[in-house]
Amino acid sequence: MYRVATGQYEKLSVRGNDYPTPDGSCIRDYLHVVDLAKAHLKAFEYLEKQQQESGIFEPINLGTGTGTSVLEMISIFEDILQKPLAHTIGPRRSGDAVSVYANPLKASTLL
Question: What is the pTM of this model?
Answer without folding.
Answer: 0.80
